[in-house]
């Protein structure tokens, strides 16, 4: 009981600070920073937060989110407890999503300028928050000066892209299931995603050197790393090559070269790759050149387990993932788990709006070792289903959609309860729940980098696993169901953390309330 009172008191203090940001002029571009010295920083959570800048905060009244808006909400992110943010593409681009870059060294003018970005980096670092940015290396925009020049067969940029030759199968299907070749007059070029995104040719040393130069440029600016978009598709172009080991080897060889180039500037840069493969075995090779890859198979399993209220092999999958990645890297806590991102239906929509299932999905995610990622708005239960613009709608800060700072580039949801303002003062809100669990990770190091061992219980509505590191040894238990459950731990333990009141541990029997998470030590 003492622990629960302490956590609620701490959370109240955090949200009191958060509330100050809501009460005043939320569009202020330069928040005060005098109180954010290293001595006041919370322990790390190793949690990352994905931000679509366009939908985040608008500080100049044009309806579009901007970099100054990210700076203005750093105190919110600090109170939430995240250790880093991932910015979706901020380079100039003709699209609203930004994954077709026209200048790899520039800032999208709709988001601000380089001075705004440098200020964001400085303010984030003052708060102990790292910043990684999207690096779209597989392809450029068809409006990039490189590609426009490449349309001339005599241009030096011609060989920066891939063009059809006599005998090329122009009806070939790409690895993403779309047409691979696209016409421009009588010419055909490779574009694995769309014709607006022509693939760069990484067999060309000049392309490799330029991409390394780009990465170094941003690291020298102070960026802490990259989320590398579509990293497996640098060489995986065609559906027929999906399981080709030579293609995988070429991808790994290039990424190893890129990693070496980044190490020359910052050997601690965090580089996480988007690799959409169905198993830990197929993801593991990418851990050699990269810091981590996103765990798509686990995301699906976490959501299914929460929806079905059942441990149907989740614990075994978790153990298998840890063992596989440890064999590759020599250590635990390297995974990058998540629930959903900007390419998938939002978690709350996948769970049909069930708030308890959402909490359990979040509880499982945030008690796993590694560096979990949260998609913006997930912590307040935002919903959204494809097409893509409907899963990238404006973040809701206030009950009113026309309040200062709200982005209006696209219509968002109209439920005022799904807003930061509505939830920040409610100790039982989803936002409060996320904050509490993120801060758990600062209290127990094994939640961040412990070795995971599945813990078998004779109850399919409970999932449990041990986490062990040099300084802490805990048993994490989740009751996925809407009814109380019991388990019998194998040794004398005590309750360290609990998500709900009513947990008891008597005579060796742990009583778990409905939809609850307990950490035993």
Molecular structure report:
By secondary structure, the protein is α/β, with parallel strands linked by helices. The protein folds into 2 domains: 2-137 and 208-446, Glycosidases (TIM Barrel, Alpha-Beta Barrel), CATH 3.20.20; 451-520, Immunoglobulin-like. The protein has 15 helices and 17 strands. It has a 7-stranded parallel β-sheet with strand order 8-7-6-3-2-1-9, with helices on one face. β11 and β12 (473-479) form a beta hairpin. α1 runs antiparallel to α3 (74-80), α6 (205-221) crosses α7 (245-263) and α12 runs parallel beside α14 (430-443). It is globular.
Describe this protein with a few key phrases.
single chain; 521 residues; alpha/beta; TIM Barrel; Immunoglobulin-like; 2 domains; seven-stranded parallel sheet; 15 helices; 17 strands; globular; disordered N terminus
